[in-house]
Specification:
With about 210 residues, the chain is an alpha+beta fold. The protein is about 55% helix and about 15% strand. A 5-stranded mixed beta sheet has the order 2-1-5-3-4, with no helix packed on it. The radius of gyration is 51 Å and the shape is rod-shaped.
């Protein structure tokens, strides 16, 4: 009986030891699982924070880029407007110099004792204005007729045609100051068929 009791005690101790080992293993396993779960949670939190940081950084970059684009657009608009204003001012100055040169090159009106053939022309402008001017036929060129009209403050923009009234016919081929044949423009009024007397000239915008 003592032998059986000793064997039973030994088996009990072995079983107890196994139970203790299993309990320790389960505790270690649960601790490992808990640690793994915590690591997963920490990783997800870190990834979420990184995504939020990247999103915030991207939004900040977009704001900076938008402000930079807006600033550049404003600067470009200001530059273009400045260039346009300078070009317009330069165009006005060129037009002013052109008018001054043309006005200075116009022949003087014939005096009362002028002994050459003279024609008195009445220029009628599109706006209804009429201007009378006498020219010496032999020395005045067709171009000077155009220049005389061009320097008048009658709403002509520099691109126009001149027509004789009866019968209606264009004074020089092409009509436009910019496009007209320079050879026709350098002809004298005599060469262009004018004679002494008076005539009406119609001014037409092109």
């Amino acid at each position: 009986m003592l032998f059986l009791s000793t064997r039973s005690n030994a088996a009990f101790l072995v079983l107890l030891t196994l139970l203790q080992v299993m309990e320790a293993y389960q505790s270690a396993l649960m601790a490992e699982q808990a640690d793994r779960s915590q690591r997963d949670v920490d990783r997800m939190i870190r990834e979420q924070q990184e995504r939020e940081f990247e999103e915030s950084l991207r939004a900040d970059r977009e704001k900076v880029a938008a402000k930079e684009a807006e600033r550049k657009a404003v600067e470009d608009a200001a530059r273009i407007e400045k260039e346009r204003a300078l070009a317009e001012e330069e165009k006005k100055e060129m037009r002013k110099r052109d008018i001054e040169l043309k006005r200075a090159a116009l022949p003087p009106q014939p005096s009362a004792d002028f002994d050459g053939p003279v024609i008195r022309l009445r220029f009628k402008f599109p706006g209804g204005q009429q201007i009378d001017r006498a020219f010496p036929i032999a020395t005045t060129t067709v171009q000077q007729l155009y220049d005389f009209v061009d320097v008048q403050d009658c709403g002509i923009a520099g691109d126009f045609s001149l027509f004789r009234n009866a019968p209606r016919r264009e004074i020089s081929p092409g009509g436009s100051v910019a496009q007209d044949d320079s050879g026709a423009r350098t002809k004298t009024l005599t060469d262009a068929g004018f004679s002494a007397g008076s005539e009406r000239i119609m001014v037409q915008d092109n």
